[in-house]
TrEMBL record:
SUPFAM superfamilies: Thiolase-like. Residues 262-382 form the Thiolase C-terminal domain. Belongs to the thiolase-like superfamily. Thiolase family. GO terms for molecular function: acetyl-CoA C-acyltransferase activity. Residues 6-253 form the Thiolase N-terminal domain. NCBIfam families: AcCoA-C-Actrans. This is Acetyl-CoA acetyltransferase. PROSITE patterns: THIOLASE_2. It comes from Pseudofrankia inefficax (strain DSM 45817 / CECT 9037 / DDB 130130 / EuI1c). The keyword Membrane does not apply. Its EC number is 2.3.1.16. PANTHER family: ACETYL-COA C-ACYLTRANSFERASE, BLR7806 PROTEIN. Keywords: Acyltransferase, Transferase.
Length: 386
């Protein structure tokens, strides 16, 4: 019997901006919220879940000591449900999906949850380095690459230079991201994928709050470069610091039938790639090529692409190298507008992707994202039941 991995439910919180609506909430509780919503929407008894695989990058403080397990306990799920926490930098929860799918295909799991969280307002970027505990780089790495450390912002500057991307092109792309995200919100596009979050003051948070309506390239042109005095990367054409969580329920086609569930999509292909750790952000390009080669698909067979907007040069260089249709890229905006809660972003993007595929009858969708260390995940989903 051939086993597969299918998505039967996917949900996310609205994405909170830095020090915004979610900043007063604990990451464990935010994680538990999407787990409970996954249970409610699917009707699956959580006691059937073989594992919860949770992405999180800054695993310190409130996000330390296996936040995936603590989310299970906070959700009130049976204490017999295992959980683990994964760090593949920005791709942590996309990697969680890959691990879940591999476990299902191998027969190690029958029902599994993948997802992730990051509360960047509460646990700042870089916290995991630990002050006074040394640096995650050795003399051998310094000698090999001629640097004292790796910097994503400088990597984005290198990408812009290598692919000849001007400040105007980057700012125009960033403004379009906000425009597309605002249009998606106005059309109610995200409503089906969002689990509104109750706040301590009794209100309910139900809409992504990072979008800057009316943003234009001309307005962005006034922002100061962030990494080089004469650079092209700034806060307006980079992803936002954000808070949020997302969760995806996966099983096999056979188990879904037994449970009376209608799968949304199949995990068709899942690959990894690695590239120059100094430039750091270019690996989505070889990851995409590898995914297409392994799947037997061509770029034109894929109807929608989600390429994480860590910095504007990443999707623009990706477009230049892959020849993908620009109109099919991030149709509802990306991390520049919606935000980038690191450990949650892979699952957030996949949640948005699978809902967009369902709503528009798109058979194949591909997502990829750059990750610290010069890494990338790429995943191809195939719509089911269309």
């Amino acid at each position: 019997m051939t086993r597969d991995a299918v998505i039967v439910a996917a949900v996310r919180t609205p994405i909170g901006r830095r020090n915004g609506s979610l900043a007063g909430s604990h990451g464990i509780d935010v994680s538990a919220h999407v787990l409970c919503e996954l249970e409610r929407r699917s009707g699956v008894d959580p006691s059937l879940v073989d594992d919860v695989i949770w992405g999180c990058v800054q695993q310190v403080g409130e996000q330390a000591v296996n936040i995936g397990r603590n989310a299970v306990l906070s959700a009130g799920w049976p204490q017999t449900v295992p959980a683990t926490t994964v760090d593949r930098q920005c791709g942590s929860s996309q990697q969680s999906v890959h691990f879940a799918a591999a476990g299902l295909v191998a027969g190690h799991y029958d029902v599994v949850v993948a997802g992730g969280v990051e509360m960047m307002s509460r646990i700042p970027l870089g916290s995991a380095r630990g002050a006074g505990l040394g640096q995650p780089i050795t003399d051998a790495i310094r000698a090999r690459y001629g640097v004292d450390g790796f910097n994503q912002g400088l990597g984005a500057e290198m990408m812009a230079e290598k692919w000849g991307l001007s400040r105007t092109e980057l700012d125009e792309f960033a403004a379009r991201s906000h425009e597309k995200a605002a249009a998606a919100i106005d059309a109610g596009t995200f409503k089906a994928e969002i689990a509104p979050y109750p706040l301590p003051d009794g209100s309910v948070f139900d809409t992504d709050e990072g979008i800057r309506r009316g943003t234009t390239a001309e307005r962005l042109a006034g922002l100061k470069p962030a990494f080089r005095p004469d650079g092209v990367i700034h806060a307006g054409n980079a992803s936002q610091i954000s808070d949020g969580a997302a969760a995806i329920l996966l099983t096999t086609s056979d188990r879904a039938r037994e449970l009376g569930l209608a799968p949304l999509a199949r995990v068709h292909t899942a690959v990894l790639a690695a590239d120059d750790p100094v430039m750091m952000l270019s690996a989505p390009i070889p990851a995409t090529r590898k995914a297409l080669s392994r799947s037997g698909l061509r770029i034109g067979d894929v109807g929608v692409f989600e390429v994480n907007e860590a910095f504007a040069p990443v999707p623009l260089a990706w477009l230049a190298e892959t020849g993908a249709d620009p109109a099919a890229l991030n149709p509802n905006g990306g991390a520049i507008a919606l935000g980038h809660p690191l450990g949650a972003s892979g699952a957030r993007i996949m949640t948005t992707l699978v809902h967009h595929m369902r709503d528009n009858g798109i058979r194949y969708g591909l997502q990829t994202m750059c990750e610290g260390g010069g890494l990338a995940n790429a995943t191809i989903l195939e719509l089911l039941g269309a």
